[in-house]
Write a structure and sequence with these properties.
The structure is a homodimer. In chain A, about 25% of the residues lie in helices and about 25% in strands. Chain A has about 450 residues and is of the alpha/beta class. In chain A, α1 runs parallel beside α8. The relative contact order of chain A is 0.13. The model of chain A has no long low-confidence stretch (mean pLDDT about 95). Chains A and B meet through α8, β22 and α10 of A and α8, β22 and α10 of B.
Chain lengths: ~450, ~450
C-alpha cells in the first residue's frame, strides 16, 4: 500500500501519522512545497508581536522524527498534476509517482485582493514560517502598515504591529471587524481597544490600489483616500488551494473546496481530501463551510489517513467553535451570531448576558459577555458569540457540543456551575443568557 | 402573603429576592443570627492569604439595598422554634411571629471534631466574616497552626496560612487530601506543592486532643504524636444546621439534611428548605447529597422563594460540578472520581489524558489533566476529575451538563475544539481522555 499525501500542514501530517497507525507497513510519502513541516503557523503573529521570543519555538517536531516514524517527507517539492486514470502524480524532479491512495491536503491561499500593485515589495501574506522570519527583520524598520481586510490572522497582526511600534491602518469593506463572523456588540470592546492603541480603522472602505513608483510599496489608495505605508498585510479571506484537484476533474463545491463524504473521500474513491482545501457541511444548516481551524484540519487529516490506509473512521458535520485573542480580549463563539444567522435567513431567538469570570473581588476577574441563539421552535442552541477576558475557548467548546447534542435553552438556564472565588463567579453567564432568553419570550 | 425566611446566606437571600420577584406585595422577613447578610464567605480564606486586600470587598450589597427592595432583614436575631400547627416561629425579642410560608435556609456547621479541648481559645472555624476580621489580626502573631481535617475551605486555608508565613501541619484521617472527593493522581500535584512550601502533612492520622493548660491552645495531640501550635483550623465536613427542623418534626434524610421535593417543599407543605440544610438527590445515583456550593444554595433558594410565593419552578437532581484553587493548581470535577465511584459500588470505565491549556509555546501555558468516568453499558459520562492551571471551572460546568444530558464518550472523543495559540491547544484534553477511554476497551 502506497499513500501519497499532497501538503505538509496539520491535515497532511495528521493523515500521514494516522495512515501509519492503521498500516505500519504502508509506504507514506508527503510532498510539500515548503522548507518545513510540523510547525504552528498560527503562532507567527505572536512572534511578530514579541509574545513569543523565537520562531524556533513554533516547531513541533524535527525532520528526524518524521524519518524515524517512517513518514517520507519530500520538502520544497511541487506536485504538478494528478493522473487519476494512471493513479500517479507528476512531481518536479521525480517524474510520475504512483499511488494506491492519494490524500489532497493542499491547504489555502489568501484571496486575491484584486487590486493593482500586488507585485510590489512590501506586501506580506502571513503564512509561511521562513518568509515570516525574513519579514520579522523588515518589521524592525517598518514605520506604517495597512492591513488589507481584517481576517482572523490579520486581526492578530494588528495587535502584533502595534506591539512593534508600527502605525497601523485597517481597511475593510465590512462595517466592523470580521463582520461576516462576529456581531457588532461582541467585537466592540476590541474595536475600542484598537482605537485606544491608536489604530486607524476605515470600515466600509476598500483598498483600490497598492502604490509605489520604484517597485516598493509607498502608499495604499482606498475609497477614503491615500494612506502612506511601507508595509501592507494581506488579510483577505482563505480560499481553498485547489488548482490540482480542479485540473484532475475532482468535484469541487460552492466554496471551491473539495467535496468529500463522511470518510473524507472525494469524488474519486482512491483520493481523499482534508483540511482547508475541503468543504464540510455545517451541522445545523448543512451549508458547506471552508477555512476552519488547524484543529479541524488535523482531525480531518486523521480521518482521511485512517480511511486511506484501510481503516474506518467518520468525520461529521461541524458546529465550529472558534476563538482568538484580539487586543486585550478573547472573542469566540459557535456556528452563528445574529448577523450571520440573519444573513442566512435563519429564524432564531437570542439573548445576551454580561458576567464576570471570577468572584468580583478576586484578582484577575474579567468581564465576559455571552450571547446565545436558539431555534424558535424547540429552543435548541444553534449559535453563540462571546467576548471576555478568560474562559472563552472552554465555553465555545461546551456550546459547540451543546449545539451538536441538541441541548435546549431550558437546560442551559438550569445548568449547575462551579462557584469558587478564584476560578468562577456565582452566576455562570451562559446560564444567565439562557435565563434571559426564556424571560424574553 | 407573609413569607418568613430563616437564614441570611445565599439560599435565604436568594429565596427572599425570588419571592419578591413573584409577588412584589408579599411581606418577606429574613432572620439571621449574624451581623450581616449578602457577603461572600467563600472569599474569607483569600483575604487571610492577602490575595484580597480587605474584608470589605466581600460584601455584595448594603443593608440599605435590602430595605429598598422591600426585604426586611432582622440581624443578630435567633429563631428558637417553629410551631407548625400555629404557623408561627418563636423569635428572640419578637415573640411568636406568624407566617404563611416558611423557608428554612439555616445552612451548615462544621462537624464536631469529637475531641477534648474544643472550648480553648485559638480554635478557628472559618465561616463568619466578623469573626474572620478578628482572626485576621490573630494571624499576624500566629507562629504555627494545625489544620484539623482537610475539607475544601481548610485546603484554601492551608495556602492562606503559608502565605502569612505560618508553619502549617495538616492532620487528616484520609490517605490524601479530600480523599472522599478527589482521586490520588489528581490531587498529587497539590500535595507536592504543599510539600515544597514546607507544609507538614499527617495523612491517615487523627487529632485526639486540642491541648492547652491555661485556656489557650498550645499543642495538638495526634495519633502520630504532639504538635506545638497556637492555632487550630477546624476543617471537618459540613453538617446541616437542622436542630429547629428536627424539633419541629420535619422529615430529615440520611445526611441529616431536610428532605425536599422538586419544588423545595419539605414534608410540611407550608415550609420550604434551601441550601446546605437540605439534601438533594444525585442525578446518576439518586443518592442524597448535602453540603454543595454557594451556587447550588442560591439556585435552590430562588426555587424555594418562587414556589413559596405562589410561582412555579422545579429544582432538579444535581451532577455537582466543583472546583477550587489549591496551592498553585486548580482542581475540580463532576460527580464522582474513581475513589468515590468504587466506594459507592458503581461500575465504570475510566481514562485520563495529560494536556496543555494553550499552545505549548504560548506564555502562560499550563498543564492540565482530565479523567473521565463512564458507565460500562452505554458509555455515558458519569463523572470527571481534573487538575490544571486554568480552565477547570469551565470544563467542570461542561462535563456536568454532559453528564446530565447523557453525552457519551464517543461524542466527546469526536468533539470539536477551539485551537488558537493564546487561548487553546490543538488537542482538547477532554477529547483525548475520551479517545483514550475508547482505545482502552
Amino acid at each position: 500500500m502506497k499513500i501519497v499525501i499532497i501538503g505538509g500542514g496539520a491535515a497532511g501530517l495528521g493523515a500521514a501519522g494516522a495512515a501509519k497507525g492503521v498500516d505500519p507497513d504502508a509506504e507514506v510519502v508527503v510532498y510539500t512545497e515548503y522548507e518545513d513541516v510540523a510547525y504552528s503557523p498560527c503562532g507567527i503573529p505572536f512572534v511578530h508581536g514579541k509574545e513569543i521570543d523565537s520562531f524556533d519555538r513554533l516547531f513541533l517536531a524535527t525532520k528526524e522524527q518524521y524519518i524515524q516514524s517512517g513518514i517520507d517527507v519530500h520538502y520544497e517539492t511541487t506536485v504538478r498534476s494528478i493522473d487519476r486514470a494512471a493513479k500517479t502524480v507528476e512531481v518536479d524532479g521525480e517524474g510520475a509517482v504512483s499511488y494506491d491512495r492519494l490524500v489532497i491536503a493542499a491547504g489555502w491561499n489568501y484571496a486575491d485582493p484584486g487590486v493593482p500593485g500586488t507585485d510590489l515589495s512590501g506586501i506580506y501574506e502571513v503564512k509561511n514560517i521562513r518568509r515570516a522570519m525574513e519579514w520579522d527583520v523588515v518589521l524592525d524598520s517598518t514605520k506604517s502598515a495597512v492591513v488589507v481586510e481584517a481576517g482572523a490572522i490579520a486581526m492578530e497582526m494588528v495587535t502584533a504591529l502595534v506591539h512593534r511600534g508600527i502605525e497601523v491602518t485597517v481597511v475593510d469593506p465590512g462595517p466592523w471587524p470580521m463582520a461576516d463572523v462576529i456581531d457588532p456588540d461582541i467585537v466592540e470592546p476590541v474595536r475600542a481597544d484598537w482605537e485606544k492603541l491608536g489604530v486607524k480603522m476605515l470600515w466600509g472602505h476598500k483598498v483600490t490600489e497598492l502604490g509605489g513608483g520604484t517597485g516598493a510599496l509607498t502608499h495604499v489608495e482606498t475609497t477614503d483616500g491615500t494612506i502612506e505605508a511601507d508595509l501592507a498585510i494581506i488579510g483577505t479571506h482563505k480560499v481553498p488551494n485547489n488548482p490540482l484537484a480542479m485540473a484532475a476533474g475532482l468535484k469541487l463545491g460552492t466554496t471551491g473546496g473539495l467535496v468529500v463524504d463522511a470518510t473524507m473521500q472525494t469524488s474519486d474513491p482512491d483520493i481523499y481530501g482534508a483540511g482547508d482545501c475541503t468543504e464540510i457541511p455545517h451541522g445545523v444548516t448543512m451549508i458547506p463551510l471552508q477555512g476552519l481551524s488547524g484543529s479541524h484540519a488535523y482531525a480531518q487529516g486523521k480521518t482521511a489517513g485512517i480511511n486511506a490506509a484501510g481503516g474506518t473512521r467518520d468525520y461529521r458535520p461541524v458546529y465550529v467553535p472558534w476563538g482568538m485573542l484580539a487586543g486585550e480580549w478573547m472573542i469566540g463563539g459557535v456556528s452563528f451570531g445574529e448577523t450571520l444567522a440573519t444573513a442566512l435567513g435563519l429564524e432564531f431567538h437570542s439573548a445576551t448576558a454580561q458576567g464576570i469570570t471570577r468572584a468580583r473581588y478576586y484578582p484577575g476577574v474579567r468581564p465576559i459577555t455571552v450571547k446565545l441563539l436558539a431555534d424558535p421552535d424547540e429552543l435548541r442552541i444553534i449559535g453563540a458569540q462571546m467576548v471576555g477576558g478568560e474562559g472563552i475557548k472552554e465555553r465555545a467548546d461546551f456550546l459547540a457540543m451543546a449545539t451538536r447534542a441538541g441541548i435546549t435553552v431550558e437546560q442551559l438556564a438550569t445548568m449547575e456551575n462551579v462557584y469558587s472565588p478564584a476560578i468562577g463567579a456565582l452566576n455562570e453567564p451562559i446560564s444567565v443568557a439562557a435565563q434571559n432568553l426564556l424571560a424574553s419570550l
